[in-house]
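In the previous chapter we treated chains in isolation. Here, by contrast, the input contains three separate entities that must be folded as one system, with a combined length of 969 residues.
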Amino acid sequence: METFLSQLIFGLQRGTIYALIALGYTMVYGVVRLINFAYGEVFMIGAFISFFLVNAVSLPQPILVVLALLVPMVTCSLLGLAMDALAYRPLRQKPRLAALITAIGVSFFLSNFVSYSSGETVRSSAIAAFLLAGILLLYVLGVKYLNFPVKASPNFKPMKFVIPIVSLVLVGYLFWSARDLLVELRWKGSSFASYPVDRLITVEKIPLYKSVYITNIQIMNFLVSVILMVVLSYLVNRTMTGMAMRASKNNKDAVALMGVNVNRVISITFIIGTALAGAAGVLSAITYPRLTAFMGVQPGLKAFIAAVLGGIGSIEGAMLGGIIMGVAEQFAIGLLPSSYGPSRIDFTPLADGVAYAILIVVLLLRPQGIFGEPPREKL
Amino acid sequence: MLLKIVNLTHFFGGLKAVDDFNIEIGPRQIIGLIGPNGAGKTTVFNLVTGFYKPTMGKIFFQDEDITGLPPHVITSKGIVRTFQNIRLFNNMTVLENVTIARHYRMQYGITAAVGRFPSFHREEHEVEEKALEYLSIFHLDSKVHLPAGSLPYGQQRRLEIARALATEPKLLLLDEPAAGMNNAEALELMHLIKKIAEEFRLSILLIEHQMPVVMGIAERIHVLDFGKTIAVGPPEEIKNNPKVIEAYLGEGALE
Amino acid sequence: MKLTTYTILGLLTFYALVMVTSAVGIMNDYLLRIINLMMINIILGVSLNLINGYTGLFSVGHAGFMIVGGYVAGFMTTLLFGITKDTPYWEALPLFLLAIFAAACVSALVGFLIGLPVLRLTDDYLAIVTIGFGEIIRVVFNFITFKKKIGNWELDIGGPRGLLGIPPLSNFTIIFLFTLFTVLFIRNFVFSRHGRACIAIRENEVAAHMMGIPITKYKVMAFVLGSTFAGIGGALLAHFIQLLHPTMGGFMNSVEYLIIVYLGGMGSISGTIVAAVALTGLSEFLRPIGELRMVLYGILLVILMLKRPGGLMGQREFLFLLPERERKIYATQNR
């Protein structure tokens, strides 16, 4: 009973992280039928940006926690915007396969870019990431507001630049101020960067029941996830944008005919999805403080499977699917005999395979997932 | 009876797309299926050809129950259809489009294909001749090696029918073959359809919005509205049926 | 007829040239190594093109099938038959061929088991399942570290360390013959009723189904055939680079094969060959810049899709690669 309960807590924590990423997958898939494979990489970049931030500034813990969450979310959503504008939007009228291949290319690029630039020192990586983000952003902003490279738009509103530029300057300042601090933190090849959790929060165990306890990190994790999901539900169910989003799931053309700017709806979907993935990256980094350029690959895949499990396109499904996935995986880790057990064979690596076992079972029994509707072929 | 449909009903979620549809088609009959948009005509086609599994009801073809069989099996039994929006293999040549239709009548296996056995050459030769025959009926023989997607619209429509015929069906389902054509073109197509029906001893079930086309060639017409059959009868009767006129009111399809 | 003769002569000349120059010592080992790698990549690229290019499926797990073939063959030659570097070549060869055959069979079986349930669903699922498959392979081969003594053999496929000490049985002749076989097999398949069925599915699945083509059967067939040749490629690769590692079956490697296919052109064997040769050469050339290559690959994939979705060759073929009938048609069209 006690092991069950504590495993459940750990599993739920794992699950909420999967759920946050899965939401991004499912929302974008619902609207544009695209599997954006790059969410795992957004997750990784979110974790890294938070890492830089926390290392760079010294502020009181509560303020720092909020910043460490919000700044990566904002940066990641800008990244999502750039991804959509540069890679996916030009392909919207092309066969879906082209977009799927592009998504793989984007994911491959992001993870290898960070891996490559982190080969030397963290500082070079920070500067490279900053430059990359800056260039992408300026390009997107140029295209969006200045009709770059054509000509200046007549209804040019300089005010729209304020938030992006301020955040850009802020991020730039963070990287700059972090440079001396980060030179010492080298990580190369198979090694990794350690997320400085103790600068954010002092870990405390709160006993619940006999030997079962919950840490304040876990409480924070749950709180943040719940708040984000509530905000999301509000956005999707109560606002006009959310309504347009839900309508786009059924018929994009009809939504466009109603005078809604579908591209804007899609951009917002990307922004929300990537912001959630960024938040998930931070939460994950706090819980498992090992950062590598490829840390996003596995959670990204598993979150996608969670989205499939819940029924791709369904928001409730992504939440539930993520949590089921996390709990199942945690139980597998807890229950599989480890090398300390009687058989002396370490079975725990197999826990990594649980997600894929779930995938296979879902595909065989109910390919549309828990909340999904059976696919209807449009003839 | 060639085709017999009994109490066919199909739901999309809570929506009754086809409600208790019955039809009997004998050999060498041309039957029309009309109705306003969204009446469930194409759904009937999708049910007959196996793309949808009916919620209720049975479909018999030559006294054999074919309900719920997959499309390629139904094709091999002798039912084939065209599509409302043209579905050709755009990057394949006109000739290849038709040879695809002969696929299930060909025998040679993978080994024969990879080893280029005599059976491969013989059958490939035969299929090419056969395909050219069908293409010449539709006056497409000068275009055989062009990509199908490069043909003008009217020829694409004709190619689609040629391709369907090349499966040697007993029953041909045509889904708005005259869509997008002007009156003259549509009438020409109507004659062509009548000709091939006689020549190939076919039965045809025809969905069509252009009334002159369907009135001119169908010996019996079924009218659907909201999935329900509201009238059955010969063209003259249908033309004056008040229910039908009501269903079409505002659409201006009936002159 | 003439072109066919020239093609055969050309291939013979190429073979003789490589053999003679390497025997005399003009061709150094490094160059020969690159040529061999190019040919192995042709095998893997062409077989992936059958799945992704011709049939229009989206498999992202080609390296997974490759590594399965590699492990099966490597396990057999190294552990089961106990072949080492010092075993006389003519003694080892039949066993090696047997191992390649077994590798092809196992890869085909794995491809069938994965393909059958998944290919009935929409194309997105195949992508995710094949990515997952690469991960499962990694997990499984990482996990199997058992050592067992059976008679004189100690069974150990290495776990996370990888399978080491595989005998160098893949020489130029073997790789050359298998490359030839693969290209010829897939070309003859593609230019037959079976290949046409696959292409029709890519062009319009619904219409293909209506024209009497059992689409699931053909999707599975293309997938299994592609996996089979991936297994053969893996067996050759394992006995060429002499080691196997669980991560070799992962996503990263699969993306390299994807790039070969999409750069060359979906549905063009010629394009795949050009791209395999070019990219293998290029990656040797770019070796000094190391990981940046991967970054460039990512960008390359995106730019390809945006600017030139047809790849270098589109769906065209070199004339000498076409079967005679298609060559004649080409000639009448371009007179």
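The first strand of chain A starts at residue 193 and ends at 194. Chain A has one domain: 18-293. Compare these points with the single-chain example from earlier in the chapter.
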